[in-house]
Design goal:
The protein has 11 helices and 20 strands. The protein is α/β, with parallel strands linked by helices. The longest helix has 16 residues.
Length: 430
């Protein structure tokens, strides 16, 4: 695919994935279509050389892999990691709020979103719902595609200093989202249960619990004088998931065992059974190794010969705010993949792993940039240090440059997505 086609495919991927659980299902659909076989963690695995497989944990994390034709203990793994979650708002367990003739939904802030960007947008809900299924429980995906919710701004006449002091919301009292007119609704969750039940075509009494994210309803778009930019929700970090997926699908009959690992909960620290700080990646690699090496010694050799690329979006230079950037590290949109470097190990990049990624970019024929955060600003982190420490593998942190990270509407470059796919494809082709 050329860059524009790749970018369009990315926007379609994101728009089909309004929550982490949808992102995993969208990814799994692409993998099934490409001949990958679904595995279950609670069943024994039978793997074959050249086999293509994937496994899901917790509905929002997925690991896909292609068993290489070479010996695992001498070739190692080539790993790309990213995350399926994005910062935003999540619906509380007892959600419905009735008062002043209106219905609202109580929300909890998930991660570190730019809250002001949620105001005055056509919002909706997506996620998963646990429903009664005979004597058991079934997990069902749900997505309200039409505008369902809104966070109206307070008029400037009641907030005269907003343009000087910034738009701020009290997370408890000013973020509940408007859902509709109260009418004769009781002060319980019955009407919200009915709303979910109608969407899922089940009885309201069968709704047991949910994990629901607030999502945008505006589809992704190209923009700019030359349509050289893209805008969508969740570019951080579904763009990296998509790039890794396309690279994995494009590497035919690799010598190395290639792995894509997309985790939930990165935005809240990764310390969960489905996060990068959990056992998921180590469990999968050990099971793969059990079919490819004789003993634990061989597995350790395989890890020592492995390379992990932590792919998470990077901060592009914003010309309206030059003071926010390290002067010598202003990375450009459509300027190529970004090496992310931090001396305090907020990123996992070292000199050797940086050089290795630079060589991969050279092999792929794409430009490469380097980013360091201002020393007087706190630096974010990624799954890179967690996975590198847990597995003991060489690791590098990279990302495509973007604007407005953690906004509900983020922007990036058309060329950059193609560049990242090419670089990751080169990694899977080593």
């Amino acid at each position: 695919m050329r860059s524009r086609e790749q970018a369009r495919h990315l926007l379609e991927f994101i728009d089909a994935s309004p929550s982490p659980w949808h992102a995993v299902e969208t990814t799994a659909d692409h993998l099934r279509h490409a001949g990958f076989v679904a595995l279950r963690e609670n069943e024994r695995w039978q793997l074959a050389a050249g086999g293509r497989y994937f496994v899901v944990r917790g509905g929002a994390s997925i690991i896909a892999f292609v068993v290489g034709r070479g010996n695992l203990d001498t070739c190692g793994f080539r790993l790309v990691g990213a995350h399926t979650d994005s910062p935003g708002l999540r619906i509380k367990p007892k959600a419905l709020q009735v008062g002043d003739g209106l219905l609202g939904l109580g929300v909890e802030v998930y991660g570190g979103p730019l809250l002001a960007t949620f105001a005055d947008r056509d919002l909706s809900l997506a996620g998963r719902v646990a429903v009664r299924d005979g004597d058991g429980v079934a997990m069902r995906l749900v997505h309200f595609a039409e505008p369902l919710l809104r966070l109206p701004n307070l008029a400037i006449h009641m907030n005269r200093e907003v343009n000087e002091n910034g738009l701020k919301f009290n997370k408890q009292t000013e973020l509940p989202l408007l859902l509709g007119l109260a009418g004769d609704s009781p002060a319980d969750d019955g009407r919200f249960h009915s709303l979910l039940a109608t969407q899922l075509e089940v009885a309201p009494a069968d709704i047991l619990s949910w994990e629901l994210a607030v999502c945008d309803t505006q589809p992704g778009a190209f923009w700019g004088a030359g349509q050289e930019f893209i805008a969508d929700s969740q570019l951080d970090n579904l763009a990296s998931c998509h790039a890794g997926l396309i690279a994995l699908l494009g590497a035919e009959s690799p010598a190395t065992t290639n792995v894509c690992a997309f985790f939930d909960h990165e935005e809240v620290g990764s310390e969960s059974a489905t996060g990068a700080g959990g056992s998921f990646i180590a469990d999968v690699l050990r099971r793969v190794a059990a079919h490819g090496v004789r003993d634990d010694e061989g597995y350790r050799c395989a890890l020592a010969r492995s390379f992990f690329i932590s792919a998470d979006m990077a901060h592009a230079y914003h010309p309206n705010f030059p003071a926010a950037y390290e002067p010598a590290h202003r990375v450009a949109v459509n300027g190529g993949p970004v090496l992310k470097i931090n001396a305090n190990q907020r990123y996992s990049t070292g000199a050797e792993s940086a050089a290795r990624f630079i060589r991969l970019c050279e092999k792929a024929g794409v430009p490469c940039q380097q980013y360091a955060h201002r020393s007087d600003l706190g630096c974010g982190s990624t799954i890179g240090p967690l996975v590198a420490a847990g597995l003991g593998v060489a690791s590098v942190d990279v990302g495509s440059p973007m604007w407005a990270m953690h906004s509900i509407r983020e922007s990036a470059g058309v060329l950059d997505h193609g560049y990242m796919i090419a670089a990751l494809t080169a990694a899977f082709s080593e």
